[in-house]
Amino acid sequence: LTVSFISPFQLSPETLQEVSARLRKDLLRGLGKHSHHKAPVKMLPTFVRATPDGTEKGDFLALDLGGTNFRVLHVRVEEEAQKVLKMDSQICAIPQEMMLGTGEQLFDHIATCLGDFLESHNLKGQTLPLGFTFSFPCEQLEIDKSILIRWTKGFNCSGVEGKDVVQLLKEAIHRRGDYHIGSVAMVNDTVGTMMSCGYKDQSCEIGMIIGTGTNACYMEEIKNVKRIEGEDGRMCINTEWGGFGDDGCLDDILTEFDVEVDKTSINPGVHIFEKMISGMYLGEIVRLVLVKMTKDKLLFKGQISEALGTRGLFETKFISEIEDGLENAKKILTELGLDWSLVDASVVRLVCDTISSRSAYLCAAALATLVNRIRNNRKLGHLKTTVGVDGTVYRKHPTFSSKLQKAVRLLAPQCDITFLVSEDGSGKGAAMVTAVAQRPAHQSRLLEEKTVYILTPYLQKH
Ligand code: BGC
C-alpha cells in the first residue's frame, strides 16, 4: 500500500529524458521573438556579458531579497588580491504580513533596514553603488531598470508587478531623505551565483539555485536570443525555469499532492516546476502524503496530530534532518506530537527520500537540458563546464547534491560538469556585477573564445 503513495513520485530515466526534451523546446519558445510572449519559461536577458577581469575594485552595498532572509551588505572588491570581501552584513526580518502587504510598505521597510545599516556602520555620508539581488522574474530593460513580471515564493505585495523595482526602491529612499545611494545594478540570484563563481573559475557559465525557489541562468549565444539586436558574443540568460509546466506540459507527472500544493499556494497555476522542487514546497508535499497515509491507517495508528494537520508546519528542513538519521526522525515525529512506531519512522524516512530525490532528479533533467544546449550551440562533441550553485536545499540536504550530479551525468553523458558551491553569490556576486557594470565598456578586457560577460547596454528589437 505504501508503494502506491511512493510510486507516482518515482520518475524513470526515460521520463526524466522526456522532461528534459520538453524543457529543450520551451527554452526555444522563451528565446523566440514572437513565441516569447506566451512562453512559460521566460528566458530573460540579463545584460551580463562579461566575467570579472580582475580590475574591478571599490566599496559596494548589496541588498538581497527573495531567499530565506532579507539582507543588507557592505562588500569590498579588491583589485590586486582579486578578492571580494564581505565587510559586514545584517539580516532584516520581513514579517509575513509585509510579504503580502503593499509594495510601498515593503520598499519603505527595505529603505529603513538599509538606513539603519548605513547609520550603524558609519556609511551614511557616502554615496556607494548598490547591487540589488532581487530574486524574482524581471524583464530587465537596462541594468538599473527592471520590471517585475510576477511575484513568486512567499511574496505577493500589491502594486509592484509591472513596475520598475529600482524606481520603487529609489522612491522609498527619497521619502526618507536622509541618505543617498549611487548607481544601482539589478541582479537575479542565479546571475550573482554565476558571477561569484566566475571570479574563481572562468569556465563557470551556469548559475543554479535550489533553495526557497529554483532557477538557473546560463551563457547563451546572442544570435539565438531573437529579442536582442546583435549576432556576436554571448549573454547570460535568466531562464526562470520555475515556470516550466505552467502551460500544463508537466500535468502527466504531477501527483494529486502537487496539485493540492499548487491550489493552496498564494500563486496557483504558476511556477509548477518550482513547486515540485524547491524548499518553499517540499515540506508541504511530504506533509500532505503523510496526512493521506495516516487517514488510510498506514501511519501513526491513524491519528493525525494538530501539527501534522496544519499547513506549512512540516518544514523542508525536517526532510534533510529526517533523512540524515533515524534518531532525528524519531525526535521530529515526537515534536510534531505524533504517536510513532519504529516502522512509522522508517516509512516517513522513505517518503522524505522519495520526494527529495524527485526534486534532485527533476533539477538534474533541467540542468542536463542547459548543458546539452550549450554543447550543441558550440558544436562540441564534449563540453567541460562549471556550474555555480547555491540554495538551502542543495547545501543542507545530505544526499541531494550527489543524486543530482549522478543523474546529470546520466542525462548529459557528453558533458563533464564541475559543481562549485557559491560563496554568497547574492551578496558578493551582486557587488561583482555592480563592479563590472561600473567599468566603462571600452575598458573591459574581452576574452575571446572564452566566456565573456560584459555589462553593456543592448538594444531590444522591439
Ligand atoms: C524566482 C527566480 C529565482 C528563484 C531562486 C524563483 O521563484 O522566480 O527569479 O532565481 O526563485 O531564488
Could you provide a short overview of the structure?
Residues 4-199 form the Hexokinase N-terminal domain. With 462 residues, the protein is an alpha/beta fold.
Bound molecule kinds, no repeats? beta-D-glucopyranose
The chain-level structural class is alpha/beta
As a whole number of angstroms, the C-alpha radius of gyration is 22 Å
Strand count, sense and barrel status of the largest sheet are:
6 strands, mixed
Strand order of the largest sheet: 1-11-10-9-12-13
Question: What are the secondary-structure elements, in order, as H or E?
Answer: HHEEEEHHEEEHEHEEEHHHHHHEHHEH
Q: Counting H and I runs of at least 4 residues, what is the number of helices? A: 15
Low-confidence stretches: 442-462
Terminal CA distance: 56 Å
Which architecture of the largest domain would the CATH scheme give at its second level?
3-Layer(aba) Sandwich
The total domain count is: 2
Mean pLDDT over all positions: 90
Shape label? globular
CATH top level of the largest domain is: Alpha Beta
In total, the number of strands is: 13
